[in-house]
From TrEMBL:
Signal peptide start and end residues: 1-31
Record key words, sorted: Signal, Transport
A UniProt-annotated Pfam family: Peripla_BP_2
Compartmental location: Cell envelope
Record-level GO cellular component terms: outer membrane-bounded periplasmic space
Protein name according to UniProt: ABC transporter substrate-binding protein
Assigned protein family: Belongs to the bacterial solute-binding protein 8 family.
Annotated organism of origin: Corynebacterium lizhenjunii
Fe/B12 periplasmic-binding domain segment(s): 73-346
SUPFAM superfamilies hit by this protein: Helical backbone' metal receptor
Length: 346
């Protein structure tokens, strides 16, 4: 029995030794496999990362740029871009928060961005540098700081500007900007959808307009009514060319003043427009307490009560945030609203 036990122990020991050796070999093999897998995974990750980098060629107002997409840290100072990029879920790390359209402040605010760049009157460009963006979409109110921003972020960080250019057709310029943003942020289909919607709304508004009807466009600001010059004035100015509108009044020396040009309500009344279109600046930046603005400023004005547009209810206001949100989506909404109004009046 003892010999058997001893033999048994020797056999058991041998089995244990073999098992231990096998375990060691298995562990080594597993370790090697794990190391190989880790190496393969790392190689795959590098390959994937490399594959995801896409070289793009984009032309903005300053020339042609070669970009390496995707972009993860996007700074935006252009009011025409906020809604588009927000709709696409683009991560915005820096923005002039006080200038963000109020309809977007639940998405773009001091809690969602890392750097508040202030306003165009008192910009905090050092905050832009601290946000470490990999691209900057500049334009509109911040155009004057283009060179300053490029110098601060460095030549390797693109600072792009797609602001509609003077002398160019506005619809084409809005489309140019939208398609460029779609290319940069890999939302080509979404950008094309916005363009298609815009073109449809534009054609619809053109078809609905009766060319015998006269148009007056105004800007309400600080309780005052400003004249929006056909072809030149803020927002509604280009609509005269876009839709072939016949102005009820043409004032020499019209400008694109952000509050509109000076005009008396008597001059508006004498021109007797069939339609009045309003961009309410107060609606976007906040009206003073007790001050009438927008449609109320027109409809409640005693001097305008006998104007055809007021008597027939042909007064149309753009969305309240238009003054700070003049992008292709806003233009599409307004064009459709214009078409609705013209069609219902026929």
């Amino acid at each position: 029995m003892i010999l058997r036990r001893t033999a048994g122990r020797k056999v058991a020991g041998s089995v244990a030794a073999l098992a231990a050796a096998s375990l060691v070999l298995t562990s080594c093999s597993q370790a090697e496999d794990a190391a190989t897998s880790a190496t393969d995974a790392a190689s795959s990750a590098v390959a994937t990362t490399t594959a995801e980098v896409v070289a793009l060629t984009v032309e903005d107002n300053y020339g042609t740029h070669t970009l390496n997409a995707p972009f993860e840290r996007v700074a935006v100072t252009d009011n025409r871009s906020f809604e588009i990029l927000s709709q696409w879920g683009v991560n915005i790390v820096a923005a002039p928060v006080p200038l963000v359209p109020k309809t977007l402040r639940d998405k773009i605010n001091e809690d969602t961005v890392e750097a508040n760049l202030g306003t165009h009157k008192e910009p905090d460009l050092e905050a832009l540098v601290a946000a470490d963006p990999d691209i900057v979409i500049n334009g509109q109110r911040f155009e004057r700081y283009q060179e300053d921003m490029q110098t601060l972020v460095g030549k390797d960080i693109p600072v792009l500007d797609f602001e509609p250019r003077d002398g160019e057709d506005l619809p084409s310029e809005l489309i140019r900007q939208t398609l460029a943003l779609g290319t940069i942020f890999n939302h080509e289909d979404d950008a094309q959808a916005l363009v298609d919607d815009f073109n449809k709304a534009l054609e619809r508004a053109k078809a609905a307009y009766d060319p015998s009807k006269t148009i007056m466009a105004v800007n309400t600001s600080g309780g005052e009514i400003g004249y929006i010059a056909p072809g030149k004035g803020r927002f509604f100015g280009p609509f005269f060319d876009m839709l072939g509108w016949k102005p009820s009044l043409e004032v020499a020396g019209g400008t694109n003043n952000h509050e509109g040009d000076d005009i008396s309500v008597e001059a508006i009344a004498q021109s007797n427009p069939d339609w009045i279109f309003i961009m309410d600046r107060d609606g976007a930046i906040g009206a003073k307490d007790g001050v009438l603005h927008g449609e109320a400023l027109i409809k409640d004005n005693a001097a305008l009560q006998n104007v055809t547009a007021v008597k027939q209810g042909n007064v149309v206001a753009a969305p309240e945030d238009t003054y700070t949100n003049e992008n292709i989506i806003t233009y599409t909404e307004v064009l459709n609203a214009i078409a609705d109004a013209f069609e219902s009046a026929k």
